[in-house]
Specification:
Number of strands: 2
Helix content: 40-55%
Number of helices: 4
Structural class: alpha+beta
Largest sheet: 2 strands, parallel
Distance between the termini: 29 Å
Order of helices and strands: EHHEHH
């Protein structure tokens, strides 16, 4: 698909995420399907704390100014 929107519904102070986000192979399938644009919506702090593969990607995206924060 040209555009993929991933919505991560968990947000908590413990940084607990489900099994999908802890498994690099399954996460890779979810994010690699976008041909042009990938939009991820979720709690940045929870995703960073709960998923090592996502933490590395989100840190890289944040450094390049590609993370948009909404309050």
């Amino acid at each position: 698909k040209p555009v993929i929107i991933l919505s991560f519904v968990r947000s908590n102070t413990k940084g607990k995420v489900g099994r999908l986000l802890s498994d690099f192979r399954r996460l890779n399938v979810a994010v690699s399907r976008a041909e042009c644009k990938l939009i991820m919506i979720g709690s940045l702090s929870t995703l960073r704390a709960g998923s090592e593969p996502l933490r590395m990607s989100l840190d890289r995206l944040d450094k390049t100014g590609k993370v948009v924060r909404f309050q």
